[in-house]
Amino acid sequence: MAARRRRMRQGGAVLATAAVAAMTATAFTAPAQAQTRGGAHDATRRAMDAVVAGGVPGVTGQASDRHGVWKSASGVGNLKTGAPRGADDRFRIASITKTFVATVLLQQEAEGELNLDDTVEKWLPGLVRGNGNDGRKISVRQLLNHTSGLFDYTDDPDYQATYMVSDGFLKHRFETRTPQTAVQVAMRHQPDFAPGAKHAYSNTNYVLAGLIIEAAGGNSYAHEVRQRIIEPLGLRATTVPGNTSRMPQPSSRAYSKLFVDTPAGKIYDVTLQNASQSWADGDIISSAADLNRFFGALLGGKILPPEQLKEMKTTVPDPDDPAGGGYGLGLIAANTSCGVRLWGHSGGWLGSISNAVTTEDGRHSLAYNANGDWTADGMAQVTEAEFCGDGTPGKG
Question: Which part of the chain is the Beta-lactamase-related domain (predicted)?
């Protein structure tokens, strides 16, 4: 899913997928280090190697199916030392966070704390106003499926210059940013379209969704995610980092060109960055193993009641997906070339591109991450290889 969009706007960044410059062969030709228990995942391993050969420093991934668990890593985790990418790495999952947020809101709906057809105004009075924006006309559901029409705050040129691009990021990378700041940036702009008119991805939607979680439940967004998802599922590698900047171990370094889109653009180590600058639209840190457990449990019906899971899987057309998938409530539907229907989410943020998908029944899951953000070329082929690699639907 991460590679579908030529212009990725997931997890709070506009990530161009232009071709990258060739780098030193020794830095990018390390073969995959695999640990296999049952099943054949040779095609997936080769696809991961191909992503690295195409210019990404390193890739880590894990699959879980009826044969057991398979994990692998390819390429480099640290360009300075040459240390390999780790098969158990933790990484910033960016917009995959949105699935966690939507899950919490759907649980709150099941418990009667809110209704998806409540207006944004009911929970956040007066916050979405001005320049044609009106929270009285936007529902919680429209936030979750990106049909609100609200401007994506990460597309604001001044915001990009401050927090995302080159010198701005380097200067402000450790600053705490409030969610209200992101909403205020979005309110400087007119909406892109009337609520419900169509689907267009906007990170502003999930900043507001996080604030509604807090208003409805009386606890912080981070508390609700921990209590409702992380702890019950035993996701020991998953954290909601708040305003911390460091990465938990084990993890690799994260690299970005900071949107200086030239073949010879300098590569920056962006591992350390204040997580509050993405918040509920993309701040969670996790691992491939934990993401597989989460999505497997979610699609397997172990987290949401049937009614709420059905709502989550009710999609609207996504104009960026020519394969006819669709966007549900924090959940993307995708179709592989061999006919497997997958559900999951992708995420891109400074230094990180990730994808997590699972089959309809939650029994075959795949999650993987690249520690460079300047290209998503070849990422979709990792998914194709896992689920279609041997020509048999659903088998890698």
Answer: 46-373
